[in-house]
Amino acid sequence: MTRKIGVIGMGHVGSTVAHYIVANGFTDDLVLIDKNEDKVNSDALDFQDAMPNLPFHTNIYVNDYSALGDADVIISAVGNIDLIKQTDGKDRFVELSNNVEAVKSISAKIKSSGFNGILDVITNPVDVITSIYQKETGLPKEKVIGTGTLLDSARMKRAVAAKLNIDSRSVDGYNLGEHGNSQFTAWSTVKVFGEPITNLVKENNLNLDTLDKDARDGGFEVFKGKFYTNYGVATAAVKLANAIISDSKSQLVVSNYRKEYGVYLSYPAIVGKNGIEKQINLNLTKEELEKLQYSADFINQKFEENK
Amino acid sequence: MTRKIGVIGMGHVGSTVAHYIVANGFTDDLVLIDKNEDKVNSDALDFQDAMPNLPFHTNIYVNDYSALGDADVIISAVGNIDLIKQTDGKDRFVELSNNVEAVKSISAKIKSSGFNGILDVITNPVDVITSIYQKETGLPKEKVIGTGTLLDSARMKRAVAAKLNIDSRSVDGYNLGEHGNSQFTAWSTVKVFGEPITNLVKENNLNLDTLDKDARDGGFEVFKGKFYTNYGVATAAVKLANAIISDSKSQLVVSNYRKEYGVYLSYPAIVGKNGIEKQINLNLTKEELEKLQYSADFINQKFEENK
Amino acid sequence: MTRKIGVIGMGHVGSTVAHYIVANGFTDDLVLIDKNEDKVNSDALDFQDAMPNLPFHTNIYVNDYSALGDADVIISAVGNIDLIKQTDGKDRFVELSNNVEAVKSISAKIKSSGFNGILDVITNPVDVITSIYQKETGLPKEKVIGTGTLLDSARMKRAVAAKLNIDSRSVDGYNLGEHGNSQFTAWSTVKVFGEPITNLVKENNLNLDTLDKDARDGGFEVFKGKFYTNYGVATAAVKLANAIISDSKSQLVVSNYRKEYGVYLSYPAIVGKNGIEKQINLNLTKEELEKLQYSADFINQKFEENK
Amino acid sequence: MTRKIGVIGMGHVGSTVAHYIVANGFTDDLVLIDKNEDKVNSDALDFQDAMPNLPFHTNIYVNDYSALGDADVIISAVGNIDLIKQTDGKDRFVELSNNVEAVKSISAKIKSSGFNGILDVITNPVDVITSIYQKETGLPKEKVIGTGTLLDSARMKRAVAAKLNIDSRSVDGYNLGEHGNSQFTAWSTVKVFGEPITNLVKENNLNLDTLDKDARDGGFEVFKGKFYTNYGVATAAVKLANAIISDSKSQLVVSNYRKEYGVYLSYPAIVGKNGIEKQINLNLTKEELEKLQYSADFINQKFEENK
Fold this sequence. Notes:
The structure is a homotetramer.
Chain A: E1 4-8, H1 12-24, E2 29-33, H2 37-50, E3 59-62, E4 73-76, H3 81-85, H4 96-113, E5 118-121, H5 126-137, E6 144-146, H6 150-164, E7 175-176, E8 184-185, E9 191-192, E10 195-196, H7 208-216, H8 218-226, H9 231-245, E11 250-258, E12 263-272, E13 275-279, H10 286-306
Parallel strand pairs in A: 1-2, 1-4, 2-3, 4-5, 5-6
Antiparallel strand pairs in A: 7-8, 9-10, 11-12, 12-13
Helix pairs in contact in A: 1-2, 1-9, 4-5, 5-10, 6-7, 6-9
Keywords (chains A, B, C, D): Oxidoreductase
Family (chains A, B, C, D): Belongs to the LDH/MDH superfamily. LDH family.
Protein name (chains A, B, C, D): L-lactate dehydrogenase
């Protein structure tokens, strides 16, 4: 069968996601959806203007929810960047009530389409929104996943790698919890040079608090310069989609429902064609567990207020 | 040696060019330049946030003209989208005086860097701007190339392919002349189903004038929906850059200096590491030659007014 | 749904096809089949040893015909290279009776699997074998395709490009008829520098007969040095498979059933998810039509002798 | 500048390396060298027959040592598979004296070319051969690297991943020492599910000795079925080459000169354009250190006997 991906929301992020997919031939059918018909038609046409000069062909469908029925993955990139601008990009929750309404309406349409694939949610605040998508679509919890701190972990790797002058792909480890201000780098999971980074602090003159802040505020740094962020998060979302479609059973840190916390939050899991194929359990320190509980409580409270 | 590409101008087009390059590992070193330091730093950081989740590594340098000295290709994507918006995207010349000033200043800096590679110009109005870049940098004419109607030809292919329900890559042929309103599809060069398209008009119920207009106005159509165009042109510019770097000697329709017209205009040429490696001569019809002359005269007049 | 490709026959060609697919992530599920269990298990393991260092994940299944039931494409690369060696690679028909038996047995198994996708046949002599696959599997004629002269056309492009010092992708045109000694370059279809190549013979000092021979004997040239050919044909077969899976409706010169000749032979067609989506008609010269008829007669005779 | 890679030795491994590079556009210039002129010319032609159907262009040069002078990386894939066959693939040292002679002769030619890039050595027994290359070419030790256990570590990841039903890329850790029978999996470095694998043995019913043997004997398993191994090692060698060319400073386990052992052996290091950019130090267990010393002693003895 052919691969089919839907992208809902063609703002800065959604259009970057779609371009990355088209430019690399990651799907056969691509369904693009946006309330702004002019924008989504414009992007679709622009992709088609790219294709004669690309090695891959992608069939593009616009604003047809029924085409999502047999999609492998739907990527939700809806959002309202204008609202975030009002907070200088510092508070993803300012988007919440607006996005909740959008997500409820979208979920009803996804449900009607008969979609039974995996939802890959970028829309912020992503942990709460992922919960709402799950509740509204009625999809099993393992089939609804948020990109969560897959991006923040990348930012942490970027920050650590820059400090140590190494490839960011040579840094392992995770940021956990909320894709928001209550997240944290679980330093006990971070390994560089074949060692826990905590062993290397002195020798390499590392300030873990600064690095942690750098990861957490990475989005804000990017936001400051262009009033949106797109490349990092689009890459994370497509990596997640590819793991699902190819059923690779990759370990990725994404927002998934953790029973013990009763919420969606970012924690590594094995991802395949059924979504979350297996949850794993890290040996976190007591301090990290407290931070994670704090983050979970924060997400939970926001979800209860908005579900 | 490592591949090195510079991108000057990190607006919608330049940042899309850079992302396409980073996501596909097309270069080893990437130099990003923009007057808006916040924007270019933001994009650079965003690319670095993508890299831990990408299979390729790219070294990114920001706002360092001296780093362009040994670049293989510099892609000029400077422009002022606000000016185009005032004309609803219909007149690329509204940008001219603004861009001429920018290009003169940039050329001086490129010259100082000792750059001796190939200039790949997207900046509009591209034919005039390419001339000005050549004049100001003092680079040989064959080393300064505009993306020109590589994009418009793609739009023509997209339009023809949609009408015939085939892959746009299975349409051959060229739009010639100005990357602007005086361009035209040279239908005598267009081949589909192994035949000149002119033979297939009746059988397939084609209206070549409509298709011609569709190609020429394709940019406007895209512009209408989002107030810029980026994916098609970025793909064309990178295709040109890759042909140069890999010395592929590909035949591409790009803006190159044609002695017989005394201007830069789009006409197919063989492109390799020396830029325009060979110019070719099409057997155009009398009508096409007249249209090309008209287009050349138009470009020439604009160049004389602004050089 | 996920993409699924089967490869039957893991000799030099089949294993190269499989590697090219695995290294580029062109499919999600890959079914490898060979009578030599040791060889196919060895290749499967070798691909899995590559995967930790690859950006793509592929699920590999070995010698399970039932897994072909829902494949998009099956690539037949069975063959007996030892037989060809006896003729110094000059006669693809020496393999025929051996391959016919193999193909009959394989077809029965493909049929049992419930396969309803597209057969992409490399096995030589490809035109006759493709006919036999169609007859034996009972699949509609448009769903059984041979790679045919997609390879020989590439060889012609390579030869012409080398002579003119241009990118082989900048040569258009076709070799037609049998993927064998009765094939020919249809020079009336070949275009370089925007012109029919026949116009450029004098100016560029071309000897079309020599170039024709170069294309036709290209396989023998490669064969001479290593006693098999694999990279060119594997690339052609995968290009065909990708056109099918992505439903690109690309125009490709492949072996397809032409009613007017009553045989499978290579002639350009539009290829998509239904296989041959549309047949096209070239304006061949009288001489080319005669050569094509001769080639068709030859294939037909061989098919009648072996069906 | 353009990327340039040389491949010396066009047997099963070298030709697979070259094909992987050509099919993915990893280099601009590719220099292929083999004593068997027919074979290398055959492969070069076969690659050129693939190119019209590929999205990338590569310039191929055959048997020209002088063209290696400005190469970024030379990959040594010379070897004598017939000798290994005599031992059923179980002893890489049977090739040694034959390969030492070849390597001495090749080194002289590399030296004459003025090559100052990085040597990426696959030739077995790789640790000893890498030493000999370094001695004979006179290149600094950090500029001569063997692929070593980058392959064996991949085999270990494949074995562990298969047992746990996860993506092999989600297994971290290293095989160390000789790319040969004295190697071992350093289980203290292996992490899955965010934990040291040693914590997960009981819960997941793992037998580390069996898995260790599986990694070490992985090559033999592949060899048994086809009497050579190529895809895994070619992928490793190209991964190393790409890290060098893009100066990614990736942490890779490769054969590099460790002063404390006085030999080349596999141990993780940071790899960039200068070759080994930084050596790292693992916290190995006492038992692992003993195994590593044993492996080093073995390599050293073989080197002394053959230098």
